[in-house]
Amino acid sequence: MERLDRIATCLAPLEALSETSPPPSPFFLAVYSQQVYWTDGGRFLQPIFSPEITWHQKFSIDSGYGRQAPPALPGNQIFSYTYVLPYYLRAVRILIAIGTSFFADFGKTAQRQQDALIRFATFLTTIHDLIAGGITKLTPAPPPWADRLGLTMEHSGASSDIPSILTAIPGVIGEFVIIQSPPSLSPSGMVFEYGAVEKFSGFSSIKSNGFKFGPGRSPELFIFQKLQIRALREMIKVYAGVGLLDLCTAINGLKKLAGQAPLSRHKYADWSFREIFAQAGIGARDGYLHLTDLANLILDNPPFASPLSWRNLLEPAG
After folding, report:
1. Cα–Cα distance, 19 to 223 (Å, whole number)
2. Angle between the 84-102 and 244-257 helix axes, to the nearest 10 degrees?
3. 1 and 146 housed in the same domain
4. Domain that holds residue 313
5. In a shared domain, residues 150 and 181
6. 61 forms bridges with which residues in the sheet?
7. What is the CA radius of gyration of the chain?
8. Which of 93-102, 160-169, 171-180, 226-235 has the lowest mean pLDDT?
């Protein structure tokens, strides 16, 4: 009886924290207007050039992705897990440790215990899916980009010191070479900002890479496809960084004790060639996906990796 009382003591806080009215739980809600969310505002600027006498930089406009925040729930509330979830998982570990030390078949024979473990695992799966759903990929819009970068409206014949309509391309900064005679401005490269943000916590993994233009056809489309793979790497980092791998371990620990099938591996839990093909937009040929198509995309477009291996191609150090 004393053993059951101790287990009941461990179950009580988890029962309370797993309350689902309002969903996902009142303990996992915060005041939306008091939260601070990720932004790159003012940190990724596109120079704007003017053709007065000779081309020169006139001013800059924001070319970042801006504030990345989830939509508010009714009543100025928002899902928030950063403070509560660690304590919930600590309570789960205590329950498992005490339960398995007292009973070799803990979670499988006593119906109340089994039902509780299944309920906790189901609740945590909901939390996992909410957090994973907040992981947002940040990459530039599809090309073309070259004719939309770094020029004032004067370039098209309009006359204005500060154009009334001028938009930047989020995630792209154009680089230019100023030619003195005759005065002209020539696009010479681009810098891309890309990565991933988990919107509820603001946890992020953001990178940037520059590309110079070479002779021949525009590499824009292929660079865009490769950026999707690079951004996938950052989504995988964010998935692990916010603790979702540990959360899956806790869920599967509960499921195992209750005799349930484990949680399926999430697509951001590790590399998957099918997900890489999907992110890069590489379709099948002859009814099959070809690794040579993926390899050619990665090998022929910067940034490059050395020595050559699938891991280095997909996860370069830089």
Report:
1. 47
2. 30
3. no
4. 282-318
5. yes
6. 46
7. 26
8. 160-169
